[in-house]
Every structure is written in C-alpha cells, then in structure tokens.
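WP5 quarterly update. Target: Fatty acid amide hydrolase. Source organism: Musa acuminata. Length: 320 aa.
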Amino acid sequence: IQAPHLTGFGFMLFTWLMEAPLIGSLILKHKNEMLRNTVIPERPMFRPEFPQDPETGVVVLDEDRHPIARLEAAMECLPLYDPFLYWTIRDYAHAYRSTPLIVAERIISAVDEPPVPLLISFNADEVRKQAADSTERFRAGNPLSIIDGVFIAIKDDIDCYPHPTKGATTWFHEVRTVKQDAVCVSRLRSCGVILVGKANMHELGLGTTGNNPNYGTARNPYSFERYTGGSSSGPAALVASGICSAAVGTDGGGSVRIPSSLCGIVGLKTTFARTDMTGSLCDCGTVEVVSPLAATVEDAMLVYAAMAGSSKADRISLNP
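Structure tokens (predicted):
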C-alpha cells in the first residue's frame, strides 16, 4: 500500500488546515463521504469458532439462565467456607446482616478525598441508595445472591447508568450518550451488587501504564512511586487497596492481566464471546473482552459466573 506521510512543516500546515473552522470541516466531509462509499468485499475479521467435545468434571453454565442461578451453580463448585487471610466475597456474605449501608459510608469517605485518582465518575448519593436497598434486603432475610451488597467498580469504557462513559477522555461522553447499563453490568446489578462508579484507566485503553493526564494517574497501592499497569489501572488499584472486592475491566492485549499482575490480584481474560460486550466502547472484534478483576480466584469465579454469557448474535459452540 502506497500511503502518503507528513513530517515537519508539511505536518504543521496540515494540522492548521484541519483545525481551521471552515477548511477543516470541508476536508473531513469529503473524506467521510469517501469512506462511507467504500465497498469492502469481505468481512474484515474471522471469528475463532471451533467445535469442542464436552469435558469431564466441568460444570457448564447455561447462558440462558438468570445470573443468580449461574452464581448458585458456581457456589456448588467451591469448597466449604473457611475464612482466610484476604477478605473474599463470601466473607462479606457471611458478615452482612444489615450493614451494607455502613460499609458504603466507609467507602464514600475513602474515595471522596482519595490520595490517588481511582474513580473518574462517582456519586455518593447513588452508592447510598444502592446500599440502602441491599441493607433492606438483608434485614428482611432476602438477599438476592451471594454477591448482594458486594462493592464493584466498573472501568470507564463500560456503560454503567447513570454515569457517563468517557473512556478516560475529556470529550467522548459528549458524542456518546449512556442510556442503560452494559449487559455485563446489568447482570451484576440483578444480583444485588453495589456499583461504586467508573474507575480510572489509560485514556481509551491505548497504553499499559495507566498514566492519564486528564484525571491523574492511579498509583500502585503497594508503592505510590510505581504504576498499576494498564489499561485497567483504576479497577486494579481499587481491588488491591481493599476498597472494592472486585471490578470489571476490558482486556484486548493485557489490559486486565497486566494491572492485576502488577497489583497482586487476580485478573481473568475470558475466551472470545463468553461475555457479552454490548455496552462497552470496544464492543466488536475478536480480541477485546469484558472480564473480572478480584482479590482471589474464588471471587473472580463468582463475578464471572454472574456476568458470563455471550450475546445471541455471538453464540458459538464452546460452552462457558
């Protein structure tokens, strides 16, 4: 492919023309019309579909079942509850009676004046409302699931209503309106989780450090002089600092696995199409996935069980 390239003065002139109010809009209009009328003779991506025989000793999570039912199936795979060094989701479940609202106030105080910018969008009243609803369910003896009242953060490239989705930019929310939860967030919400807000990230996910000049850089909880890794920097820092039990991030080339590794937590990159990408900024392609970050393998398993399930358009022969 022969493509033109610009450097030096030529590039400066081109930038000036593109930013000029009238000339720039005419150039973009012409280029957009060219792209709109371009015919691509074949689909640009091939889906990694393949048949697989059922494995022995594996519990298949029926994708059409409610997330709560899938959680119950996952619970049957876990050993008996035994408190350990780290606080897990089951620790919260056993400790809760009427206290989610109390925990919410402590989390609000921790993130209202954070030492590092962990959240891009946060609404204390919204967190209190969710926690109050969960508290009432516990008082009535009717928690929705094992993850009812558990605090989870959502990466800023995944829709979580009523928060805007900025992708850690200063402008993306102005061209893309959030009207509802992403599918993975909706499934978690139906299980009673308390969604803390939108976690910081490397801008548009285009980097592995988490360095963000727009909202500040989420530092590693174990050493503020070090990066968390990225691009799911905020989710990893929130879990590693103990503010949230789990978080949901996106991973194409390591954006969940890298910060999880650097922050000493568990990050899962799910198999293609096992989680529904609808409602995330990168909701196409065969690489990017939405997946959990958690303090332990057990917690990652439970969050995954709740949010798993491909879109009906992406059903493949590999069962989760």
